[in-house]
């Protein structure tokens, strides 16, 4: 009985052992399978990682190349920046020196302006004094101008004497004898007094010459105010422009003398003491008469003029000229 149990126990032992081994084998197979699967997975992952690592390595190489390019560019830019910085530094130093120079100039100009302001202030005081003095001088000047205007009016009245004489001549002579309204001269045609080219007075003209002369000079001498102012009675001979100047001068002079010689024979001349006043002058063609077209009127240019001058005539004309100029 005991033996049988022992045998059964052995049998059970080996059965249990076989089951155990089978279980262990199954576990081992499962373990091997898991290892194989794990190995396959790891290999796949390893290949994937190797591919990824290779890609990363290539990318890293590309990035390293780009980094090198960027480093070279950075180095170039750094050099350029360094050059720019040096140039800017030099410019900045120059600018700083210029600012110092400008400040120096500005300080100098400021001091100069201060000096000018002081000068202007001093001049302003002097100007006020000058203005006061000018105001005083202006009053004196106004007084002098008033006196000058008064004297000018008096001198103008003196220079108007000849105008008054001419006006009185026109009134006394009437319309029968025409005289120049400006100079007061009496014009006589040479064609009436002389033959052409001759300086001998026509007998037929002497009566008319005597009458005109007595009326003209009589109007001057009959008025005491005019007679006292008389300086000269001038007989002027005039020709046209035909012929040479010397010929015309000689002819005009001779004709003027011929008229004066005749007038000196008159009792009227002797009675009125006109001899010292008479003067003969030849003018040739220096004062020809022009028509409206500014052309020479030869007939009117050939003439004898009797005119008068007043005492101090030249001085009065000069004074009048000065006054008109002012």
Explain this structure to me?
- The structure is a single chain.
- The chain has helices spanning 2-159, 161-173, 190-193, 203-221, 224-229, 245-264, 267-271, 298-301, 313-325; strands at residues 186-189, 230-238, 278-282, 303-310.
- With 326 residues, it is an alpha+beta fold.
- It folds into two domains: 1-120; 158-325, 2-Layer Sandwich (60s Ribosomal Protein L30, Chain: A).
- Helix 1 packs antiparallel against helix 9 and helix 2 (161-173) crosses helix 4.
- The N and C termini lie far apart (186 Å).
Short description:
By secondary structure, the chain is an alpha+beta fold. The chain is built from nine helices and four strands; from the N terminus they run ααβαααβααβαβα. The termini are far apart.
Relevant terms:
single chain; 326 residues; alpha+beta; 2 domains; four-stranded mixed sheet; 9 helices
**What is the CA-CA span between the terminal residues?**
186 Å
Helix content: over 70%
| Total count of domains | 2
| Structure classification | alpha+beta
What's the CATH superfamily of the largest domain, by name? OmpA-like domain
Kindly report the spatial arrangement of strands forming the biggest sheet.
Answer: 1-4-2-3
Low-confidence stretches: none
Task: Report the CATH C-level class of the largest domain.
Answer: Alpha Beta
What is the mean predicted local confidence, pLDDT? 83
Strand-residue proportion: 5-15%
Number of DSSP helices?
Answer: 9
């Amino acid at each position: 009985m005991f033996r049988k149990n022992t045998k059964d126990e052995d049998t059970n032992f080996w059965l249990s052992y076989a089951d155990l081994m089978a279980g262990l084998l199954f576990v081992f197979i499962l373990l091997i399978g898991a290892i194989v699967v794990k190995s396959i997975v790891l290999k796949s992952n390893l290949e994937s990682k190797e591919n990824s690592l290779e890609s990363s390595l290539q990318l890293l190489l590309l990035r390293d190349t780009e980094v090198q390019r960027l480093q070279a560019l950075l180095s170039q830019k750094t050099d350029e920046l360094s050059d720019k910085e040096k140039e800017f530094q030099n410019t900045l130093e120059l600018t700083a020196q210029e600012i110092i120079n400008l400040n120096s100039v500005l300080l100098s100009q400021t001091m100069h302006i201060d000096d000018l302001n002081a000068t202007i202030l001093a001049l302003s005081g002097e100007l006020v004094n000058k203005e006061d003095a000018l105001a005083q001088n202006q009053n004196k000047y106004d007084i002098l101008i008033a006196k000058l205007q008064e004297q000018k009016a008096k001198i103008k009245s003196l220079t108007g004497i000849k105008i008054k004489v001419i006006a009185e001549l026109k009134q006394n002579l009437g319309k029968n004898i025409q005289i120049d309204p400006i100079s007061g001269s009496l014009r006589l045609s040479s064609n009436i007094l002389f033959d052409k080219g001759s300086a001998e007075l026509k007998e037929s003209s002497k009566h008319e010459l005597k009458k005109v002369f007595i009326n003209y000079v009589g109007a001057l001498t009959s008025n005491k105010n005019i007679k006292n102012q008389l300086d000269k009675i001038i007989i002027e001979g005039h020709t046209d422009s035909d012929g040479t100047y010397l010929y015309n001068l000689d002819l005009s002079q001779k004709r003027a003398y011929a008229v004066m010689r005749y007038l000196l024979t008159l009792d009227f001349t002797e009675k009125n003491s006109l001899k010292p006043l008479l003067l003969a002058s030849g003018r040739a063609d220096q004062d020809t008469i022009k028509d409206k077209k500014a052309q020479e009127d030869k007939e009117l240019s050939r003439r004898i003029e009797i005119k008068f001058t007043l005492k101090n005539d030249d001085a009065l004309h000069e004074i009048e000229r000065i006054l008109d100029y002012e």
